[in-house]
Write a structure and sequence with these properties.
The complex is a heterodimer. By secondary structure, chain A is mainly alpha-helical. In chain A, 77% of the residues lie in helices and 1% in strands. Chain A has two domains: 48 residues, no CATH class; 225 residues, Orthogonal Bundle (MetI-like fold), CATH 1.10.3720. Chain A has a two-stranded antiparallel sheet with strand order 1-2. Chain B has two domains: 227 residues, P-loop containing nucleotide triphosphate hydrolases (Rossmann fold, 3-Layer(aba) Sandwich), CATH 3.40.50; 110 residues, RNA polymerase II/Efflux pump adaptor protein, barrel-sandwich hybrid domain (OB fold (Dihydrolipoamide Acetyltransferase, E2P), Beta Barrel). Chain B has a six-stranded mixed beta sheet, with helices on both faces. The longest helix of chain B is centred in the middle third of the chain and has 18 residues. The radius of gyration of chain B is 24 Å and the shape is elongated. The chains are: A mainly alpha, B alpha+beta. Chains A and B meet through helix 9 and helix 10 of A and strand 6, helix 2 and helix 4 of B. The structure holds adenosine-5'-triphosphate (ATP) and magnesium ion (MG). Adenosine-5'-triphosphate binds next to helix 1 of chain B.
């Protein structure tokens, strides 16, 4: 059945040894940029985190086990990020389908979707205060119409619930943008084939559609998780240091009078490590289930 | 080929489908017998895929009725129509093994476990892929994938199998062998097949009947022999096979006037401008010294070797004329040689392409 002649699209181009030796030259510029702007700072952070007042020590890491605050903030960050990335995908997925199907309005809707991504987290936070805060636009409108108590109504905004809502504001657009691409690349003939074979909507969704979207859902939710774990500005604007997420603790260590840069470094290393581990573990777990 | 007593597999009655203001298919009435192999051919954009999707149920007709057997199915959703589909891009489920792919429809229809197992094995056997049951589609060549797609569609015993250019993505050798395998499967299983292709040679070689489409309408429907030797229009003559079309005039008394010649026709046709079609293999070298009707003097200008035959392009007062000669010992002409060509009246056919005078659409 093999044909000779023109190469198939799935036959990877093979370089011979001679060519391969020079292939890395192409990667050199990218590697340089990565080294200077990513690896070097990361290394510095890592390096400094092992020193307490000039001497080598693991204290900055051990304090993670000693100080309850660190453990709790890591737990808060993790649960906030799990919750928001889950909700972000859940809400964003149907919207992304609607955008994909919107025909002529699609380009406009995509541009609109991208706007929240250009705003700084701080701006998003303040925007929510202006709209839903105690004397926010919608709060006052609701007070006028339904006679609600502004204080009671907007109290949620300054707790972790408020963070969930505000985070979704910049997470849902990310889902939409990744999933619109996934819908456009979807092979609809698979769905048509399944339909002609008599499969129900539920069967098609579970056995054909979900596996087809799985790679995009996987990388999309990983992205949301990473963004959530690192977000800082929005939380700072809404809750100050009241909701103790890990980036906030790092911030206080850097900005306090009694700055403890090395401790902040260690926490930053932990944040990076945990985020990476969760994403790698998550993708491994699901990649096994959907052979592609 | 199709006995009049044969029951109906698929019937289209006055079908029309519009996209915006343009008709993708229009005024199509066609009946496919149960167990018949019907090909649909036509140039790109003439509505072949649309017609197939109307039968499958992905597209609703704006006009007319689609019937499967005796049942009108305009309001029956795809999943209840029991039609099989084979696509150009195979469309196998990449996350399932070949076994699971073939078993998918049977399971979706809640057939018993023993039936699922038995039929899946039978079908894998039929397409010669039983030993690869546990492979994934990406591990197969295109031809092998299309065999599985065929098995998957046939597993649920559809009322009709619809194939949309199933071999177009394959290379010539695989295409040739798979084409006859599809034909064999169709004959053995007695299933009704509607087979869309843009390759008229493919259609002629495996079909009971061929439907030629043009701009959303049916141009001609008939057996391969009918379409080849008795095209109904210039378009049909041009699309099916290779032909010489001599633009001239009928004198209304059994003669055809072309460049000072008067050819004798088999049966007289109405007076007026017309074209005379002669297939290149129906032209012969006239024996030396024979004069008479239906003889054309020509100059050999070029030759193309095509294996069993050589195709010569000849020139008759500026008009090109193609001539096919079998490559047997002693045959062959030299470029620059003067020849006298001859054809039998019964081997020619006068076409008055009335449809050609209709203003052309955008496609
Ligand atoms: N979903 C659609 N929306 C708008 N126009 C369509 C749609 N599907 C088909 N058409 C139009 O209908 C006409 C017939 O298309 P169709 O796909 O049936 O052609 P085809 O004969 O299958 O062509 P090809 O040989 O290239 O596959 C074309 O002019 C096409 O532009
Ligand atoms: Mg088509």
């Amino acid at each position: 059945m093999r044909r000779s002649g023109a190469p198939r699209c799935w036959e990877r181009t093979e370089f011979n040894l001679e060519e391969r030796r020079y292939l890395w030259l192409l990667l050199l510029p990218v590697a340089l940029v990565l080294a200077v702007f990513l690896l070097w700072p990361l290394f510095l952070v890592l390096w400094e985190s092992f020193f307490v007042e000039g001497t080598f020590s693991l204290d900055n890491y051990l304090s993670l086990f000693v100080r309850k605050l660190y453990r709790e903030s890591l737990a808060t960050s993790l649960s906030l990020s799990f919750l928001t990335s889950f909700l972000g995908v859940l809400i964003g997925l149907p919207i992304s389908y609607a955008v994909y199907k919107s025909g002529r309005a699609k380009g406009f809707l995509m541009a609109l979707t991208a706007i929240p991504l250009t705003l700084s987290g701080l701006v998003v936070g303040f925007a929510f205060i202006v709209l839903l805060g105690t004397s926010g636009f919608f709060t006052l409108l609701l007070k006028k119409w339904f006679d609600i108590n502004p204080l009671e109504f907007s109290a949620f905004l300054f707790t972790w619930r408020g963070l969930v809502v505000a985070y979704l504001y910049f997470l849902i657009p990310r889902t939409i943008l990744t999933m619109v691409v996934a819908w456009s690349n979807a092979d609809w003939s698979l769905i048509e084939a399944a339909e002609s074979l008599g499969a129900s909507r539920a069967t098609i969704a579970r056995r054909v559609l979900l596996p087809m979207l799985a790679p995009a859902l996987l990388s999309g939710s990983s992205l949301l998780f990473a963004v959530s774990m690192g977000a800082f500005g929005t939380a700072f604007a809404l809750t100050g240091t009241a909701v103790k997420i890990l980036p906030m603790i790092i911030y206080t260590h850097v900005s306090d009078m009694s700055a403890d840069i090395a401790q902040a470094d260690a926490l930053a290393v932990v944040l990076t490590l945990v985020t990476t581990l969760v994403i790698v573990g998550y993708e491994r777990f699901f990649a096994v289930k959907s052979p592609r | 080929m199709m006995g009049p007593e044969r029951s109906v597999g698929v019937a289209l009655e006055g079908i029309g489908k519009r996209y915006g203001s343009a008709w993708a298919v229009r005024d199509i009435s066609l009946s496919v017998g149960a167990g018949e192999f019907l090909s649909i051919v036509g140039p790109s954009g003439c509505g072949k895929t649309t017609l197939l999707r109307l039968v499958a149920g992905f597209v609703r007709p704006d006009e007319g009725t689609v019937r499967l057997g005796e049942q009108p199915v305009n309001d029956v959703p795809v999943r209840e129509r029991r039609v099989g589909l084979v696509f150009q891009n195979y469309a196998l489920f990449p996350n399932m093994t070949l076994y699971e792919n073939v078993a998918f429809g049977l399971k979706a229809q809640n057939r018993s476990a023993t039936e699922v197992r038995r039929r899946t094995s039978d079908l894998l056997e039929m397409v010669g892929m039983a030993d690869r049951a546990q492979s994934y589609p990406r591990q197969l060549s295109g031809g092998q994938q299309q065999r599985i797609a065929l098995a998957r569609a046939l597993a649920v015993e559809p009322r009709v199998l619809l194939l949309d250019e199933p071999l177009s993505a394959l290379d010539a050798k695989v295409r040739n062998s798979l084409r006859f395998e599809i034909k064999r499967i169709q004959r053995d299983s007695g299933i009704t097949m509607i087979y869309v292709t843009h390759d008229q040679e493919e259609a002629l070689s495996i079909s009971d009947r061929v439907a030629l489409m043009r701009k959303g309408a049916l141009e001609q429907v008939g057996t391969p022999i009918e379409l080849y030797s008795d095209p109904c229009s210039l378009f049909a003559a041009d699309f099916i096979g290779v032909s010489n079309l001599l633009k001239g005039e009928s004198d209304g008394e059994g003669g055809f006037l072309w460049k000072g010649h008067r050819f004798i026709l088999e049966t007289p046709v109405e007076r007026g401008p017309a074209s005379l079609m002669i297939r290149p293999e129906r032209l012969f070298l006239a024996p030396e010294g024979v004069a008479g009707a239906n003889v054309i003097e020509a100059l050999v200008q070029g030759r193309v070797f095509l294996g069993p035959i050589t195709r010569f392009s000849c020139n008759v007062e500026g008009e090109p004329l193609l001539l096919d000669l079998l490559n047997v010992a002693g045959a062959g002409l030299k470029v620059g040689e003067r020849v006298r060509l001859h054809f039998e009246p019964s081997d020619s056919c006068v076409l008055q392409d009335l449809k050609e005078t209709v203003p052309e659409g955008v496609n």
